[in-house]
Fold this protein.
Amino acid sequence: MTPSPRRHRLTAAILVIAAALSCHAAEPTATDGPRSDSYVQHAHDIAVQQPGPHEGLGTTTAYPFFEAAQGFDIVFRQRALHRGATIGTHRNDKDEIYYVLSGRGELLLDGKRSQVGAGDAILTRNGSTHGLKQLGDEDLVIIVVYPKRKDPALTRP
């Protein structure tokens, strides 16, 4: 059976994201603190059940990849919105990208509703308002990427 063009696009997108984040990866060492090395992180080791973000509804599973990486200025997170879960409508204070890995959802972006599914990428800009709702029986699984906030206490004028 030949893979579908959608499957090829999804695989290519995942490979591009992975390549952009790490050229060299080594097995992680046992540590609870900050890390400055290159490493592999397994989703099953970091999965956290949470309510829908931004006062959203339902239950989600968050995968906060590379949270302990020092000097890494990107947040890279996978989130599974389970049946009926939402990311509450909120105004962005930064640019943000959502990439839909699987499932279906309804996006509210600056007052306009649209359907999203596997292979769709969503750019929300600073000042934009958006929310997302899972639809159907399958989890809506997304990758979320945005710049990490710098601690003002650590920044010199």
